[in-house]
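Collaborator request, handled under Task 6.
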Amino acid sequence: MSAEQYTRYAPRSAWPPPEAASSTIRLASMDDIPRLTTLFDAYRVFYGRASAHRAAGEFLAARLSTGESIILVAGRPRSDEIVGFAQLFRGFSSLSLGAVIVLNDLFVIPSARRHGVGGRLVDAAIEYARQIAALRVDLEAHPDNAAAIRLYREKGFVADEEFVHMTLSFRAS
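Structure tokens returned to the collaborator:
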């Protein structure tokens, strides 16, 4: 997906005014993969990756079919259009002796931003974590993504000052 296709994907004017905007949040199924793949590819392009629509779909299908991830989707009312998603991974804390949910990916199409869709997806992720008795929800955000950091802070997330996050990459990402 080129940058031009990404910006053309959904002009802001296509979404109703904020007071009328609503979305339904539900768990994704394998039937959602074709529509979800377009958003997942746009998410990757947003973070500077080259479009890889087919590989993105294969990645999502593999994670969902094996239960390795939980994907929450936000849809327009009375429509099958997906306007946002959150991908969650389950992990564990050895120190706390319990389950942890990692909110790994969150994306809302440009036309649905600033209408509460991202907040509703975060709320649903938190509720899912509570339902499975997870100890906490972890996430990371790009330091330049001020809107996401603001949203996460509004939802009660705080920066981890106890541990340093580090990465060792084996190939270019």
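The cover message to the collaborator said: "The chain has one domain: 3-154. Residues 3-154 form a domain with the Aminopeptidase fold (CATH 3.40.630.30). Please let us know whether this matches your experimental observations."
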